[in-house]
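cron nightly-structures :: item 1 of 1
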Amino acid sequence: MKIAVVGSGVAGLASTWALNEYSDHEVHLYEAEDRIGGHANTVLLPARAGFEECHVDTAFIAFNRCTYPNFLQFLRLDPAIRILSTSMSFSVSRDNGFFEWSGKNIRSIFCQRKRLLDPSMWILLYDIMRFNMCARRLLDGPAELGLSIGEYLHREGYSDSFRDNYLLPMTAGIWSTPPDAFAMTFPAQTLIQFMMNHQLLRVIGKSEWLTIAGGSQEYIKRIIEALPRDQLHLSTPVQSLTNIGDAAAPQILLTTATGESEAFDRVIFSCHSDAALSILKAGGGLTDEEHQILGAFRWNENECVLHYDEEMMPKNREAWSCWNYLAESSVDEYGETRLNPPRLSITFGMNALQHLSYAKHGPVLVTLNPPYEPRPEMIIGRWKYDHPLLDANAKRSQALLKCIQGVRSIYYAGAYLKYGFHEDGFTTGLEAAEAVAASCSSSLRLPFFVVRDGGQSPKAVSPIWCRIAALAFDMLEMSGIRRVVGSLLGSVMAAVRWIFSFWADMKM
């Protein structure tokens, strides 16, 4: 059969790899842009005075052993692809350094020594421990299915400091979504399931994160080199799809933006849902189900800037981490202060993330939606990426996608169909390839077994010590002991601050 794959992001690359190398089908890969890879975009940071050039990823950067099983199995097929350990430390820098902290170690937590006497900082740490122990219980029953994370935090009495200086920044950073209203309406079970799967609720130990030496371009080369040159169509936007032929021999007429048309037996949409919807509309055969399901997904555009301006990092160097959340407070139309902006800003420290020597390459930074412009002479390039907003409507459409999968000989793949990550895109690409092969009774001989749940563990049971700790936190909350102790500590810290202030005034 002749198969078209529309979109060369990770899902399209996975489908192309599987069908091109492990079946007898003829595969054509269509890409609207002039490069392959989507969010897997490795670019060259050129040499500058005193520093050598290097390759840097600007979107997809890291993965881990636990929740990327299929992608990791694929990488291990090629011994030339080197996999390196990396870190995923996280920091928050607010209002040009007024408030900063990082979770790397005790020194970075209190990188601003004055926070040792700040009650809200201690409440933040207490609530992080409580959340890590107690939140996983939300996965136990279906009764909480419609609960948003904002509703959960309010119901359980979590502090504003925990919300604004930990959970919202982390949630926004993970999904590259706005950290204000959307993050608060995010499905609580989805977030907590993700955090549990990725070992972000661990109190003891850390999960191991990985990166590809030389960048994600290394695995893209592996796939594209095996695809015949005349079957790769770069800078070729697909305009429309139209069903032709009869029921006995159905075909799809694919028409590009330049007006060229070609018939295919099957088509895999590995582009974003809105792009697929637009192409189907242009073809004239869009069904109500296709419109309803694909139209429910929303997307958020983000700008990535590759630069070497260290002003885009926390002011306190002890807080420097791999992920550095940047926020500027603002006043809304009602005169209320908004701590978290409507747009996510985060700087990735690529020296640590991708083993780029500071002495050899200088500072290498990627900032998502800079809150202010890096110095122009330090900017290397800009790229825009769309990320899915995985709200309640998106989760419903994910469950309904099976109703249109394979209908009219059209299949769908993409990270937006699961949790929104590279593994999800890769897995759905493999699943679409398997479905295409099954539709024509042909075999797809993949070199490894495809893990269906992407390494997720919905039935994972918390260890007994964790459940005991959660009960202890429940007792502290219900008895009011936490509030009493918190109030007492607040008074003591206020007195200590007054003594220090009085002593400083006396010295002057």
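cron nightly-structures :: done
Residues 89-206+310-373+463-484 form one domain.
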